Amino acid sequence: MYFPSILDRLSLWLAFIAISLSTPAAVFAQDPSEILLELVPEAGASIQLSRADLESMPQVEFETTTEWTKGSARYSGPRLSDVLAKAGLQGTAIEATAQNDYKVTLTPDLVGPDYPIIALRIDDEPFGLRELGPLWIVYPYDSQAVYRTEKIFAASIWQLKRITSAKD
């Protein structure tokens, strides 16, 4: 009977870690029913949206560079305006909260009918916390100068987890 030595077990363990670390996060299975976003209207119950819910909405796709990543990439996801409509939050100031509890207020002038989107995919792949995901408010920064202002950059919150009605 063969019993692996400590060195054999250590080698296998290190090989497993090396493979795990070199594998892109998008390769690992993602649960489409996992809740990714909570919408909290001023009155009424919160609405929880899964990846499947967000992907079932009309998707917008564009290519752009960002201040936070290298090179150009293709971002896709539902329009923020469509997501806000699900909770009756369109046309009002909202507060967006990230996974680390960073918060930013988006006034109605920052949410147009087409942009921004809530990016679910970068270059057709889901992305995780390490890649600023799984949800990121993204504008087509390269398309117009209006999308390259400090106000727009501040509204581009990544690791988005909750949108609520902004408190005055």
> What number is the mean pLDDT?
87
Going by CATH, the homologous superfamily would be Oxidoreductase, molybdopterin-binding domain
What's the number of helices? 4
Strand order of the largest sheet: 2-1-11-5-6
Quick recap:
With 168 residues, the chain is of the alpha+beta class. It has a single domain, classed as Oxidoreductase, molybdopterin-binding domain (Sulfite Oxidase, Chain A, domain 2).
Write structural notes for this entry:
- The structure is a single chain.
- The longest helix has 17 residues, at 6-22.
- This protein is α+β, with helices and mostly antiparallel strands and 168 residues long.
- 21% of the residues lie in helices and 28% in strands.
- The protein has helices at 6-22, 51-55, 80-86, 150-155, and strands at residues 35-40, 47-50, 59-64, 73-78, 94-98, 103-106, 117-119, 121-122, 125-126, 136-138, 160-165.
- Strands 2-1-11-5-6 form a 5-stranded mixed β-sheet. Strands 3-4-8-9 form a 4-stranded antiparallel β-sheet. The chain has a two-stranded antiparallel sheet with strand order 7-10.
- Mean pLDDT is 87; it is low at 19-29.
- The chain has a single domain (33-165), classed as Oxidoreductase, molybdopterin-binding domain (Sulfite Oxidase, Chain A, domain 2).
- The relative contact order is 0.19.
Keyphrases for this structure?
168 residues, alpha+beta, Sulfite Oxidase, Chain A, domain 2, 5-stranded mixed sheet, 4-stranded antiparallel sheet, 4 helices
